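Quick log. Single chain, no ligands specified.
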Amino acid sequence: MERKVVLITGGAMGQGKAHALKFAENGFDVVLADMQDPEGEVFSGTVRELEKVGAKVLAVKCNVTSDEDMKVLFEKAWDTFGRLDVVVANAGVLNFGYTWELTDAQVQKVIDIDLIGTWRTDKYAAIYMKKQGFGRIINISSTSGMYGTPKLATYCMAKWGVRGLTKTLAQELKGTGIVVNTVCPTKVKTPMCETESYVEFINDLTGKDFKNWQEMYDGVPFLDVEDISDMVFWLGTSRAAGKFSGRDLALDLGTLQQ
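-> predicted structure:
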């Protein structure tokens, strides 16, 4: 039986790596795109882990803000494997600041990567999946794309936009055999959260005084990356998840009920 293929942006570490491992452990070959160098310690380490569980891996240095990079990424993936069963638009960044403090550069960076980068991923995913007449596209948004969060305007704007993109593309792909859905996680234990600025953000948000990210993880509920990967894998492979499109699936730890 021909092995299925998943393509993941932002795949060298964090959520992207966890998604890649989940698919690889279940018989998928993997296309990993990241701004890091595939020969670097982090990216190459991820590739080795995937290969150990039997996956064939195509690792590509790719900037989701570059149309040429993304065009080449999908061309290489198609030329290598001849199919794309699942595409996960995972690449993302965040920054902090009250709306009136933000600079154009801060806003543009997050919009370019988190929103326009997702659109660019979806664009090429749709082009190639339409050739084969099937596919699953999974966009990673956030619970911050479902409600406002102080000092997180750039991220909220981008992640709300991802949800709008998903719903539009789902309408456009009706009847093609391709479905597109969004996963909206709350706070997740990833390197993106293990910074001084993120701890300060959580302290401001909660009124706590955590000294480091280890204290923060102990004091505030966070998802593990595997929690999200389980949902992403289900969306990408299950018969049931092929029956709906344009939906938001929140992994919110109850935050939407507050």
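The first strand starts at residue 5 and ends at 9.
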